[in-house]
């Protein structure tokens, strides 16, 4: 129902056209406003139009006094009262719909880093701060003009990469009102975000780069990595100042250090150069609890400390857990600085908080953003690339910042990536060659391989073995065999024995459950514990929860070994007529399992690592984008931890922990980016990404292809949708020979070529229209890979390469064509001088249409030993029938 009709029914008069504005609004503007009212049809909303008309007629005039750093506004105050009255009627003239959600609103006005401006024209320093203050004030006045007090709460003003704000709206009508307001470009409901390391620098070749940068302690010096995560524990040894005099941050970094609980003023010590926290969306929804989550940059969860230490933790720091030194931890770039932006918590996080964190990180002047977070749902449309976070990260890239993001833990399912866009380096997770061998020996001499990081039973003595059920009270009901309740055990029977604890389903292979068993065994004073499964199926030890224990323990996951162990136990057991045990004849010895061995095995794509192909809309349409871009170690990674964290019971109270996930892989790549940027400070984010991708490993030391773990632990040859361009190789990434460069305009042309995306959608998302010269295909983007989601007939793909080598080099192209596709590269041989560019034409032709993607590569081999690898992912499709 139209608001004017509602007003007339209540007898409210329609006021006459307003008098001239003291701020200088002309009579022409008044006439235009009156025309707007008359233009509203019978099905329109005249009252909302009236408000808009009065806003136009009495629009406050804002002038910017740079000399006095003040904002001067002239407006008719009585008119603002009138706006508020009419707006109140709109919001309250009908049934109230409770919404209580967070929304992000983007305005049409430019942010500080405008998508329309060149890098040279970006506002900086005092000018940027004045514009920020003016923009924030305009947001407040805009909201006060349209929404009644109490109907909303502004959480953030976004000013640097986006011009907009986040609000907590208490009614659906409030959002409808804003959606119809002039000056609003885009509104998006907030999205929940989810959280997605000691020897690994050597495993990926970072230690080879360190000497080129002045040694390990200086590797990454002058580079600031912005960690958008759960915060940091500044007292952890990985983040303590490495010298008596704290190292100052780079002059280009303008961040500050917010203090608070467990985050004193000296927390920013040279290693940590800035720290902030963002939780207004979490506070608005009631999920943030200051007692649990800390109103400071302190990390109560552990996730942020872990990722930060992986990227840039101090060199050669003892990783001690449960009183045992598991090695010396080092970040990939130990000399880099850390800027902390806490925007995630044990409950996850919200996109509006993350966007505020990214906005501030760019304003502060970070060089890299490491984001081990991703959306829990894909709600944007019509294209995933137009998600508000994705477009904000595009503008961060425009500002010269490299963005590295976890690809997600939804594998091995296809189409499970949560990091979509070609301007983001999306990271998958792999295993490493570090293994912990654990064994048990039973009385008949048999030896079983097990899991578990624990000490051995003391000495070389064999210890009596007892099933938990046989040393518990006979009247106990449940909870005995799975060892979760210490009160059911008979203490005199468990002394000096190793106890077998069991469970029925492999679903119980969870850290909390296993930690509960260990806690029970400690409390009852047994000599050790063997944990095994009653089921007949095997469990994959590679993906079994692994954590250190201070008591001897072992996990038997092979079903044949478990059966043999139980048969041995039964064969050496004597029971009386009532079934009670009169003699425990079986014996066992648990060997130490805390010493790592290094097998020199190639990395394997972790089963949980999310897979491509990338998608360009909610209907899961495959996109012409390779995701993930690269993979890095993410499985069983040691890193810093927070002793206050209860996220993992098995590491409670510890300062180092072993975690797995693409969250752990991401900071490895962020650290390598820091090494590259220190070595090549003028490279663009696209050049850095290219260097990482084209030098990645796709084979092991023997030349055999890398593998990926599928459902059920099956190993198959890895494809680019599993591992991206391959396993990161830091040693080669700093000297790639050739790079593929792309800038903001290239990415804009990419967006305008996405199927189903019109010019209006692009304008709403990024604030600028599609350029006059448009790309025909998304695959035209000058990326270090070629992906064609539907090759019908033939397609030409051009690529520009730039030489970053030190001398002239001649390259020869070698092609491994995907199945069903013919590939021709011209020129197949070319010479390029340092700093010069060359254009390659890659022509793809369908030779045998199929029903899936096939994979290949173009390899450019230079006569100065550079090798540039370009992955090909092509779906050869049949032509549609006329």
UniProtKB/TrEMBL annotation:
GO molecular function: serine-type endopeptidase activity
GO biological process: proteolysis
Localisation: Secreted
Active-site residues, Swiss-Prot/TrEMBL: 229 (charge relay system), 303 (charge relay system), 663 (charge relay system)
CDD domains attached to this UniProt entry: Peptidases_S8_3
Residue ranges occupied by any PA domain in the UniProt entry: 470-565
Keyword Protease carried by entry: yes
Residue ranges of domain Peptidase S8/S53 in the record: 220-700
Keywords attached to this entry: Glycoprotein, Hydrolase, Protease, Serine protease, Signal
InterPro entries: PA_domain, Peptidase_S8/S53_dom, Peptidase_S8/S53_dom_sf, Peptidase_S8_Asp-AS, Peptidase_S8_Ser-AS, Peptidase_S8_subtilisin-rel, Peptidases_S8_3, S8pro/Inhibitor_I9
Region (Disordered): 1-29
Every Inhibitor I9 domain range: 110-193
Composition-biased stretches (Basic and acidic residues): 1-11
Lineage top rank: taxon: Eukaryota
Biased composition (Pro residues): 13-22
A Pfam family recorded for this sequence: Inhibitor_I9
Homology family: Belongs to the peptidase S8 family.
Name this polypeptide is given: Subtilisin-like protease SBT2.5
Source species: Oryza sativa subsp. indica (Rice)
